[in-house]
Amino acid sequence: MISIAIDGPSGAGKSTISKLSAKELNFIYVDTGALYRAIGYAAMQKKISCDEIEKVTELLNSISVRLVFNEKGEQRVMLSDEDVSDYIRTPEVSMMASAISALPIVREYLLDLQRNLAKTNNVIMDGRDIGTVVLPNAQIKIFLFASPEDRAKRRYDELCEKGMQVNYDDVLQDIITRDYNDSHRETAPLKPAENAIMVETTGNTLEQSVQKLLSIMKENIEKLK
């Protein structure tokens, strides 16, 4: 089995690029950020804050989080028996996901799920610590990055397309805050793996970024044969 780990900050295009690349390569795409978002969403629904560790523990014991794939091959996120895929992309859930993902108990809760997917499938898995913690033995590791302004513009456009009322400056500040939180947390901070291939997407169209990543992936997959 081949594992491709794609790490990088929020809004760098990891999910969209990984999803399209996985389809091209006939790999399974695993959006680990969606798993943390689902737990963050569950905590928000129960009005649980991240410093209430006992309540977070009780929450984790009362829910199940899993990824399923519909007839189109699209990944959907299930929180217990509810498909929450369409509810977990708001800035509020993003910030909650960033905070809750810093808790060791939450990361441990999801670790086996993520690793088991890679044991039984060729996967492209994206997140913050895939190459450093989740899949340290992944054969191909990529760190995707772009300027905060570029990432905020993409996220702003994405949210506007979904009909959400958002302010660009608020989205930018959320990106900057999340970058700081993700890179400064004690548990599994955001950073490139030592042997990661660094790829910048600032100013690229989606098509340019996908082609750039696919070229790197195919070249490295060929080396593994």
Short description:
With 225 residues, the protein is of the alpha/beta class. Helix 2 crosses helix 4 (91-100), helix 4 runs parallel beside helix 8 and helix 7 (148-161) packs across helix 8.
Provide a descriptive summary of the structure in words:
- The protein is about 50% helix and about 15% strand.
- By secondary structure, it is of the alpha/beta class.
- It has one domain: P-loop containing nucleotide triphosphate hydrolases (Rossmann fold).
- Helix 2 (about 30-45) packs across helix 4, helix 4 packs parallel to helix 8 (about 170-185) and helix 7 (about 150-160) packs across helix 8 (about 170-185).
- The longest helix is centred in the C-terminal third of the chain and has 19 residues, at about 205-225.
- The radius of gyration is 17 Å and the shape is globular.
